[in-house]
Amino acid sequence: MGLAAVIAKSAAALCAALAMTLQSASASTSTRTVILIRAAAVAPGGDVVRLIAGPMPNRATVARVLTDTNCAPDMQGVSHCTNVLRLADGRTITVRHDHVMMMIPCLAPEEMIRLVPRA
User: Fold this and answer.
1) d(C-alpha 68, C-alpha 63), whole Å
2) Distance CA 115, CA 25 (A)
3) Contact indicator for 114, 85 with CB cutoff of 8 Å
4) Do the beta carbons of residue 98 and residue 78 sit within 8 Å?
5) 9-67 pLDDT, tens digit each
6) Which of 52, 90, 101, 104 is the most exposed place for a label (fewest CB within 10 A)?
7) CA-CA distance, 57 to 38, in Å (whole number)?
8) Domain ranges of the chain
9) What is the pTM of this model?
10) CA–CA distance, 30 with 9 (Å, rounded to integer)
11) What mean pLDDT comes out for the span 71-75?
């Protein structure tokens, strides 16, 4: 294994450990913030969901997670979960949450999240 591979592997392990630590700390103290993007947009990284169906909120809002399905990871270890969210105004939207479970957990049914739309 070359030096670059060792560095990359160490960096990935460090990022995973840091993400888990931050999630544990924030889970007990605040509402999780999730970025909402349109289906064709490039994901900025972090906790991001893609709008599949329903209206794009025009500003940040709270949402309750109603469902979490299709969570089996693909060959690269990425889960492509489908979630139905109820927005604060009562409307529902469907999103796809592409994430690596070891770094970013699934959106759990009944979880309240802060949803921040990005153009």
Assistant:
1) 14
2) 19
3) no
4) yes
5) 443 343 334 344 444 544 455 788 888 888 877 676 678 999 999 999 999 999 999 99
6) 90
7) 11
8) 1-30, 31-117
9) 0.71
10) 31
11) 92
- For residues 78 and 100, the answer to whether their CB atoms sit within 8 Å is yes
Q: Locate 77 and state its tokens.
A: 């270890």
- Residue 6 amino acid letter: V
Category of 77 on φ-ψ map: left (φ > 0), alpha (ψ -120 to 50) or beta: left
Q: Find the angle CA(40)-CA(74)-CA(94) to the nearest 5 degrees.
A: 45
Helix boundaries (H) for the chain: 3-29
On whether the CB atoms of residues 62 and 88 are closer than 8 A, the answer is yes
Q: How confident is the model at residue 7 (pLDDT cuts 50, 70, 90)?
A: very low
- For tokens 């009944």, the residue is 110
Record the tokens describing residue 76, joined without a space.
């690269």
Tokens of 54: 């329903």
Phi, psi (rounded to 5 degrees) for 82 = -110, 130
